[in-house]
Each structure stands twice: as structure tokens, then as C-alpha cells.
Amino acid sequence: MPASAARLLLLLLWLSLSGWGLNARAQNPATDSLRRVLAHTPPDSARVLLLLELGRTYRASKPDSTMYLAQKAWQLARQLNFDKGRGRAQSMIGMVLRERGELPKAYANQRIALQISRQSHDPEGEAYSLNSLGNISLDLRQYPQAIEHYRASEALYRRLHRLPWVAGTLTNLGSCYEKLNQLDSALALQQRAETLIAQNLRPRLAVALALRNMGMVQARLGHSPEAFAYYRRALHETQATNDLRNRAMAHYHMALLFEQLHQPDSSLLHARHALRNAQAVSYRLTVMDAGALLARLYQARHRPDSAFHYQSLAGAARDSIYSPEKFQQLELLAFTEQQLQLRQRAQQAEQTARYQRAGLLGLLGVLLTVALVLGWANRRQRRANRLLNERNAQIEAQRNALDEALTEVRAVQAQLVAAEKWAFVGELSAGIANELQNPLAFMRKFADVSVGLLDHDSTTPTAGLEQQIMDGLKQNLHEISAHGQRASAIIADMLAHARPGPRQPVPTDLNALVAEYLRLAYQGAPGQQLTPAVELEVHFDPAVGTVAAVPQELGRAMLNLFANAFYAVRQHQQASGPGFQPQVSVQTRREGDSITVEVYDNGFGIPASVAERVFQPFFTTKPAGEGTGLGLSLAYDIITKGHQGTLTIETEEGKFTRFTVRLPA
């Protein structure tokens, strides 16, 4: 027997004992023995399989080493034209990419590996690729598709009598049914997997996986003690195999269960362990989940900085896995695969037609009496061509429909990502604002009471130094009250931004509403003692009539615009002196199917470089301490989102500013 054949036989015996399975072992004592064997193995097919076996021992602790060894195995297999080894190496590369969160690349590699395994008649490699495709579908929450892949993988492993890997597919199937909330089916599948694993303890990674999945089902059923017992057994199993990936997931699910049981300290401890272990092996799914859990826990502890830090980690992991670009790549891969299948079917139909023509021509050369049969065959061929043309037209129509659907999906995905990020910011801001309201109210109340006490005591004559101290205290208390009032205004604006749910619009007299809030803004405008007084011009179009609006919301938006106008002219008047005549003009008019409200002032105007940013939250052109930066942002949201109108600005620095509101009539 040649030496290379003997080595291949020994390696196959080793693989039958150690296993080619759904979950390879973590780095263990077998690693050193495999490296010693590899050092004396020539570059043949046995070395390809040995590189892959060594790579599997690093999977759960050093995925970068697994990727390096899989790539070396792929290169050697390609040089040797060893398709079985090339398919398995391609599948291992896809497995590492999936755990890094590179789902499109992982999907592409697994599809290639599946095709190679089928062409090279490697059922084990085919089963492994199908299971990996099921894992990717599970990550994408495509549970029916994941179940289909897992079922196909299970059937192959049963045919090959690989019971440990049958158990792996069963526990994965149980996870799918648990996500679909079919807990009875999930529990039955996990129990079957647990029974098989108890009889076959290799590969050991499958043990930790099954124990953790069983704990998840018990937690969903409300059996907390049983769930904790399974999670602890899973953690113990990962210690023996240095399985950082399953250890991270077990810690995360323990933290999640402690959070549900209102034990935040224990939840925080296990969530930190989960994040640390997941980061060690670049397992981004658990980084995303553990980061989001830590953000919730720190937010509940009123530590917004830590909450924001962990939410940023979770958001970065989520974007790296589920970004719109990666969804587009997955959709393009699925579309390309569908087109390939359609082309293959068309080629098969064309090949069938060629065979039919060749048979008819051969029959014509032998027997001239088959002319009638030949005519019948020709008619059948024309019908086949017509059907083929119709099929091509259908394919073209489907391609156009898919292009349109892809464009819509991209837009929806971008909106969903932006909405999720803004929802978190709004939710966090509203929580902080509500927590700040009570201490600010107490601060203003105690400041006012203290001023009252000082005023009461001022009736008693005091020495000069004591009087100075008393005056200084009164001044400090006034400053505290004023700044507390300003903080309350900021919080009120933030809460107005975060207020959920639209209100029902009612028919509203727009001229009356504008007049009322213009009066309120004028009476509350600062600097009324300056002269000359503001020249206020009002032009209301009687044809405006009523509009469908939420009066309180629209009034708030108008009040912000009027207040800005009065503030601008007063600032200009203070800078220019008595020779400047402040002017504010408000007019309404009907223009076809829309109503226009213009607010004009001859203040300083706004520089063109910042005019486009005035509607952004927390952006203000006022000096520090005089504006919250939320007024115009709130007005913009009320008009554009709440009333389906538009709000635009026209300004010239040093001369004027004009805000124009357009509402549907």
C-alpha cells in the first residue's frame, strides 16, 4: 500500500473517531497531536483533511486561526483538484464569516460549498453546508427557511448514521420552534437531542449548545430553576472545551433571565461576561444582544453615559450584521441564484428539445414512412418554442418586478434603521427629562421660599457687611430660580418632542388662532421697555376660513415663530440704538388649495452658512443661556409631520428674516 494511501486511511480513522460535525470542538489537547501529525504529512489530500480537523479545534476559541487553516486547506485542495476537501474548506470559511456577522459572504460561501459537495458526491459536506445555511437563516429570523435546511441536513446525517450530528440538527430545529413560540414542539425536539447527546458525547461543542438551548425553552415555559440548571451545566461544559462562543451565549441568556426576575445585579454580572467572551471571538450577534441588555440595565440605574456606551456597541454590531447594504447583498445573491435556476431549467428544456429533434431526424433517415410522425414532432417543437418564449417573457417580467421590489425594500430598510436609532434617542431623552423635572421644581420652590424669608428679615436693620451678604444671597437665589426656570423650559421642549401619538385635527379658525398667539407672544416678548415700540403689521385674509388642525400643537408652532421674530428685532434695537425702528409683520392668505402664513422681522437675519440648520434639534443662533435650540425644531415637526404642511426660511444677514408656513386648505 502506498505511503500516501496509508496516511489517508489513518486520517479517515481519526475523523471517524473525532467527528466531522455540526459543531467542531474547541481548542483541546488533540490540537497538539494534530499539529505534530501535520508537520510530517506531505501536501496531499490527507493534509487537506488534517488542516480542516486542526481548524475545527480552534473554532470556539481562536476563530482567526480556524479561518487561516481553512484558507490553506482550500488552496491546497484546489492545487490537487480535491473537490471534496475544497467544498469542506469553503464551508468552514463560511462558518467563520457567519460568526463574525458577515452574513452575505457567509451565505455565498455556503452556497458554493453546497454545490461543490453535491458535485463531488460528499453527503457529509453537503449536510454540514445545509446546517450552516440553516444557521444563517436563523440569524436572519427566516425560521421556515431555516427549518427546511435543518430538516434536509438531519435526513443526510441519519442516512450516514451520524447520531451526534443528528442531535445537533434537532437542537437547532428546537431553537427555530422556540423562536416561533411553538414551545411544545421545541421542548420535544430539545429532549430528543439531549437523549442522543447523552449516548454520544462527541463532539463536545454540541453538548454545550444543546444544554443552552434546553435552558432557553425552560425559561420560555416559566421554569426558572430548571433553566438556570441547564445554563450552569452549559457553562461547565464550555470550561472543559474552552468554548468562548457558547459560553458567551449561556451568560447572555442567564443575564436575560435574571433581568426578567428583577435581579439587576446578577443580570449585570452575566451580561458583562457575555459581552467580554463574545468580543474575544468576534461573535457579533451576542455582542449586539449583550450590549443592548447592558444599555437597558444602566439606563434603569440612571447612568446615561454607560447606557449610551453599551447602546453604541450594540448599534455598531447591529449595523455590521443587519445593515441595508448587507441585506441588499443577500437579496442580490438570492436573486442571482433564482436567475441561475431559471436559466438551468431553460437549458434543460432546450437540451430536451435538441434530443427530440435528433431522434426524429434519425428516425427519418431510417424510415421514410415516418413523415407523419415527423410533422407531428415539428408541431410539438413549435409549441415548445412558443412555451419557451412565453417563459422568457415571464422571466423578464419577474426580473422587472423584483427590481421594483428591491428598490422599495432598500427604502424601507433605511427608514427602519433610522427610526430604530431615533426611537432609542427619544426614549432615552424622555426618561432623563422626566427624572429631572421633580428636582428642578423643588430647586425653584426652595429658592423662592428662601427669597421670601430674606425679604421678611430685611425689615430688621442690619450692619453694612451683613446687609451686603444678605443682598448677595438674594441675588444668588434669583439666579438659581432663573436658571432652574430655563432648565424646565428645555425639559418641557424635550418632552414635547418625545410626546407620542398624533392628536385628532378639528376645524380651526386660522386667523383667530394666529391673532391669539401673536398677542401672547407680544405680551411675553422681552425688552418691552425699549423705545421706539415694535411696529406690528397684521394682514389677515378673510378668505382663509377654517383649516383642519390640532389647535394646541399649531398654536405652539406659531408662538415659537412669533417669539423668535420679537427676540430678533429687540436684539437689533439694542445693538443699533433708538434710531432703529423694529418691525414685525404677520399676514395670512389663501393661495388655491393651500393657506400661507408669513412671519417677517427686520432683525439681524441669519448667516447663510447656518440657515439650513435652524430646524435641527438643539441648534440655536442665540447666545449661551438664552435659547434651548428646540423651538424651531418643534415647530417644524408640528407643521410638516403633524399637519402635512411646509415650513421654509428666507433670510439676509443684517436685514431681515421671513418664515413661511404653508398648510393644506
UniProtKB/TrEMBL annotation:
Q: Locate the coiled-coil region(s) and give their ranges.
A: 378-415
A single Gene Ontology molecular function, please? kinase activity
Q: Establish whether keyword Ribosomal protein is in the entry.
A: no
Tagged with keyword DNA-binding: no
**Keyword terms, alphabetized:** Coiled coil, Kinase, Membrane, Transferase, Transmembrane, Transmembrane helix
What reactions does this protein catalyze? Answer: ATP + protein L-histidine = ADP + protein N-phospho-L-histidine
Q: Where are the transmembrane segments?
A: 358-377
EC number in record: 2.7.13.3
Domain Histidine kinase stretches: 431-665
Spell out the PANTHER family in the cross-references: SENSOR HISTIDINE KINASE, TWO-COMPONENT SENSOR PPRA
Protein name, as recorded: histidine kinase
* Organism of this sequence: Hymenobacter artigasi
| Organism phylogeny | Bacteria, Pseudomonadati, Bacteroidota, Cytophagia, Cytophagales
